[in-house]
Amino acid sequence: MNVDLFDFTLPPERIALRPAAPRDSARMLVVRGDTLADRIVSDLPGELRAGDLLVFNDTRVIPAQLEGMRGAARVGATLHKREGPRRWRAFVRNAKRVRDGDTIDFGAGVSAVASDRGADGSIALDFAGDEPVELLLERAGRMPLPPYIAAKRPTDARDADDYQTMFARRAGAVAAPTAALHFTPALLDALAMAGVGHVTLTLHVGAGTFLPVKADDTDDHVMHAEWGRIDRATADRLNATRAAGGRVISVGTTSLRLIESAADADGIVHPFEGDTAIFITPGYRFRGIDGLVTNFHLPRSTLFMLVSALMGLDRMQAAYAHAIEHGYRFYSYGDASLLLP
C-alpha cells in the first residue's frame, strides 16, 4: 500500500510533553465499530465486559541514551537491541566519526568498543569491564524519551517515573509500552470488580519503533526485530478467555504484536520466546486479539498502519480527525483510545 494513505496533519501543540496526572485521568476515545465516544481512562471498566482479559507488557525501560567521546569527536548512542551479555546494537549520532575497533568513552567509567556496522546504519557496542551492563547504564545513561519529546525539552528526574508503567518488571526496553502508562492500582481494582482480568507478557521495545517509514510502499519497509516471551500459563489464559466467550484486549501495540506472532491460523496462542518483526498493515487477519487500548500514533508510522488494519483506514482517519478537533493529546505521554472492531 502507498504510505501516503497513512498521512495526516497534526498540529504541534497536540504533542503531549507530560503525562496526565493522575494517570487514569487521561482522555480516552472509544472507537466501537463506526461510533465514537469521548471518555476518560477511568471509565474503562464500564466500556468492557465481565470475562474480558487485558494483556499488559511488563518490560522495563532502561537508561539507554548515552553521550560520549571517540577521541575528540562527540557521539551519541541509543541502544535498541541486546545481542549478547555485553553487546548491544545502537543507533549512533555522528556515526561517520566511528570506525570498527574504536573505543567510545561514555564517562563514569563506562566505555564500549564499536564494530559490525549494519545495513540500517546501526553499530554494535561491546561494553568493557566485568560489571553488568545494567549497572553501567544506571551510571552513564539517561531515559530515552521519544525524539518528538526530547526535541522540545530535556529529560529530567520526573521522567524516570513517568516513563515506566506500573507493570515494569523485566529490564530491556528502550521505549515504554505507553498505553499502559495510563493504568493505576485503583483502576485495576475497578476492572477486577467489573469482572475484567489481566495478564502480562514481555516484549522489549526497541528504538526502531520511532523510525519513520521511508519507503513509498509498505511492502518495501523492513521492521526491526524485538525480543519477546509468552509463557505457557499466559498462553493458556488467553486461549481459555476466548473459549469462554471473553475478549482478549491488548493494552498497547507491543502486546498485540507479540500475541499475533504467537497465534496460529486457528487463533490459538502458543508459548513464544524469541524475536519478532511482524509488520501489520490493512488486509491482515487478526488471530489472537479482539480489541486494543493504545495511544495516538505518528502519521505514516507502522503503528498507525496497525490500528488501521484493526479498524479500517477510513475509520481511523476519521477517529484521528475527531481527536485533533476535540483537543486530544498525542503520542507517548498523550491520551488513549479503545479500539473495538
Automatic annotation (TrEMBL):
SUPFAM superfamilies: QueA-like (SSF111337)
Catalytic activity line of the entry: 7-aminomethyl-7-carbaguanosine(34) in tRNA + S-adenosyl-L-methionine = epoxyqueuosine(34) in tRNA + adenine + L-methionine + 2 H(+)
EC number of this enzyme: 2.4.99.17
Main localization of the protein described in the UniProt heading: cytoplasm
InterPro entries from the UniProt entry: QueA, QueA_dom1, QueA_dom2, QueA_sf
Keyword field: Cytoplasm, Glycosyltransferase, Queuosine biosynthesis, S-adenosyl-L-methionine, Transferase
Family: Belongs to the QueA family.
PANTHER family found in the cross-reference section: S-ADENOSYLMETHIONINE:TRNA RIBOSYLTRANSFERASE-ISOMERASE (PTHR30307)
Subunit structure: Monomer.
Protein's name in the database: S-adenosylmethionine:tRNA ribosyltransferase-isomerase
Provenance organism: Sphingomonas lycopersici
Gene: queA
